[in-house]
From TrEMBL, chain A:
Signal peptide: none annotated. It comes from Aliigemmobacter aestuarii. GO terms for molecular function: iron-sulfur cluster binding; oxidoreductase activity. This is (2Fe-2S)-binding protein. It comes from the Bacteria. InterPro entries: 2Fe-2S-bd_N (IPR042204), 2Fe-2S_ferredoxin-like_sf (IPR036010). Keywords: Oxidoreductase. Coiled coil: none annotated. SUPFAM superfamilies: 2Fe-2S ferredoxin-like.
UniProtKB/TrEMBL annotation, chain B:
InterPro entries: BFD-like_2Fe2S-bd_dom_sf (IPR041854), FAD/NAD-bd_sf (IPR036188), FAD/NAD-binding_dom (IPR023753), Metab_Enz_Cyan_OpOx_G3PDH (IPR051691), Opine_Oxase_asu/HCN_bsu (IPR017224), SoxA_A3 (IPR041117). This is FAD-dependent oxidoreductase. Residues 6-313 form the FAD/NAD(P)-binding domain. The lineage of its organism: Bacteria, Pseudomonadati, Pseudomonadota, Alphaproteobacteria, Rhodobacterales. GO terms for molecular function: oxidoreductase activity.
């Protein structure tokens, strides 16, 4: 489906990063969660409790609903900037220990 | 180890104004902020928003740029991208930046942590596509991204501002679903005489409403029985008004019913907090300079009680004056003289607040959610579970936390704490103050074991 968000000025240099193994071009230095929304990525993850889908909620680092995994560490996407080569995995529910 | 006379947590209106004022008295200031660039949420990315976004967001936003400019001072060291995870009232602050844990030591600490959106637990509020109205505004400010096919739900002036900004961006919201009633506005009217001193805010609000009317944005007021529908993501908002049940299909739902002080850091130091009935939230106890019960710790801006960005620049400066005096950089008489105009402006800035608090009360349905509604987003605990724990004898939030994990997830109770306090308070008929709040402990933000280990070695 069509992304739920519109980019008012989709210009500027883009860099390539990977999300779940797919290459994506995003604006260099932009807010990662915002770029993912503009790219139509939704949900961002499934919860470890019930597997329910989630996406960004507060965009200010407080809710922890935009968690993604970057090179093995769980990070808040809304506090990250897009940089070339980021390798992002979207969390898929309960991690098997 | 960083050292500074004053360490400020938060580079929003209060933190930036305090930094500039304190540096003006010759103090060395370390300004720590989680965001890469200064501005806080209200002036987020104001330094690089550009003229297009500036026009959409209006002057109250672009005005923030001059506060950012004032940080360019040899006495101020601003560290962006710094997540503070421990604050010691004796003056030690631990934070992580660029993947490295670091410690800073200061003689005074100013908490300028600002506000959080008041939690708004409604059926379906955890679905992807449901965000806070503040989040939509941050997307617009920081990234120039606007939600299409959005419905704003709740109460308060921010809803009008966000809606108007969306109209200016050429993407009006589909509707405003407001929970306040005509009765709320009438009851608030007795605060109007005092609010007239803060006329600017009231006129701005009326101007926004005119803008929305001209754009043809649908407004529903007195909405009850609100729910967000969707399979896997938000697809519609349903609610009831005087005209019966309504349903609006949409892609994004933006919630807002006021903001509340972000008390994570002040709670982590076990500072005394008091329940503010007019704002339905806790706030730390501070004196007229923002000094807390810990003499070296000050709190300014919305984190000490919601009063808005302009008031925050004033309370931030008041704290800076008291700190400069504490540290011998400003005689008492000069401190008091400099405080006088700040206090006069503060009285004007806060004049409209009692009217606004009552005209746009928190959404009743979200203060007392139905049993099946999730109230702890992280651990997916429902209101019914909290009520069940209350029936079993839990009196306070720390007990329910132990029994059902509400407040134990990664957000550490930021988005369920007030709800749990309100639920337990209602179940037992005890005041919110007596019911209490979550005990907050460091780390306030996630820190990896590797980061901690490196800190010990350095």
């Amino acid at each position: 489906m069509k992304p739920a968000f519109r980019d008012l000025a989709p210009d500027g240099p883009r860099v390539i990063l990977r999300i779940d193994g797919h290459d994506m071009a995003m604006r260099d230095g932009a807010n990662l969660a915002a770029e993912m929304l503009a790219a139509g990525i939704m949900p961002f993850r499934q919860t470890p409790v019930s597997g329910a889908p989630r996406g960004p909620f507060c965009m200010m680092g407080a809710c922890f609903d935009c968690l993604v995994e970057i090179e093995g560490t769980t990070r808040q996407a809304c506090l990250m900037e897009v940089t070339a080569g980021l390798d992002i995995t979207l969390p898929k529910g309960r991690r098997d220990a | 180890m960083h050292e500074a006379e004053l360490i400020i947590l938060g580079a929003g209106p209060a933190g930036m104004a305090a930094a500039a004022r304190a540096a003006g008295f010759g103090l060395s200031v370390l300004l720590l902020d989680e965001q890469p660039r200064p501005g806080g949420q209200i002036w987020r990315e104001v330094g690089r928003a550009g003229p297009l976004r500036g026009d959409l967001l209006g002057r109250d936003y672009t005005d923030g740029a001059r506060h950012v400019d004032r940080l360019d001072h040899p006495g101020i060291s601003h560290l962006g991208g710094a997540s503070v995870w421990q604050v010691d009232p004796a003056g030690e602050v631990a934070f992580t930046r660029n993947g490295a844990a670091q410690v800073a030591r200061g003689r005074r600490i100013l908490l300028a942590n600002g506000a959080l959106e008041r939690p708004m637990p409604l059926p379906g509020w955890t679905l992807p596509g449901v965000m806070t109205a503040g989040a939509a505004q941050i997307l617009l400010k920081a990234s120039g991204i606007v939600a299409e096919r959005a419905v704003l739900v709740g109460a308060g002036p921010l809803i009008y501002l966000v809606a108007a900004q969306m109209v200016r961006a050429g993407t009006p919201p589909l509707a405003l679903v407001e929970t306040q009633t005509l009765g709320d506005v009438l009851r608030a009217a007795r605060h109007l005489p005092r609010a007239l001193a803060g006329m600017g805010y009231l006129l701005k609000g009326l101007g926004l409403l005119r803008e929305l009317r001209r754009a043809g944005v649908a407004r529903f007021t007195g909405a009850t029985s609100i729910a967000i529908e969707g399979t896997g993501r938000a697809e519609a908002v349903t609610f009831t008004t005087g005209n019966g049940p309504q349903r609006i299909a949409c892609d994004t739902v933006l919630l807002h019913h006021g903001v509340v002080p972000n008390t994570q850091a002040s709670r982590s130091m076990d500072l005394p907090h008091e329940w503010d009935d007019a704002q339905r939230s806790f706030r730390p106890v501070v004196d007229a300079w923002g000094r807390s019960a810990e003499p070296c710790v000050f709190i300014a801006g919305d984190g000490a009680g919601i009063a808005g960005a302009k008031a925050a620049t004033l309370t931030g400066q008041l704290s800076a004056l008291a700190i400069a005096h504490d540290l011998g950089a400003l005689p008492e008489a000069d401190r008091d003289l400099a405080a006088r105009p700040l206090r006069a402006k503060l009285a004007l800035e806060t004049a409209a607040r009692p009217f606004l608090d009552r005209a746009y009360p928190p959404c009743a349905q979200a203060l007392a959610p139905a049993d099946e509604t999730i109230i702890c987003r992280c651990e997916e605990v429902t209101a019914g579970t909290i009520r069940h724990q209350a029936a079993l004898g839990c009196l306070g939030p720390n007990q329910t936390k132990s029994f059902c994990r509400a407040g134990m997830g990664p957000c550490q109770g930021r988005y369920c704490g007030l709800t749990v306090t309100e639920l337990l308070s209602a179940c037992h008929g005890r005041p919110q103050q007596a019911t209490g709040a979550y005990r907050i402990r460091a780390p306030l933000k996630p820190v990896t074991l590797g980061e901690l280990a490196n800190l010990a070695e350095s």
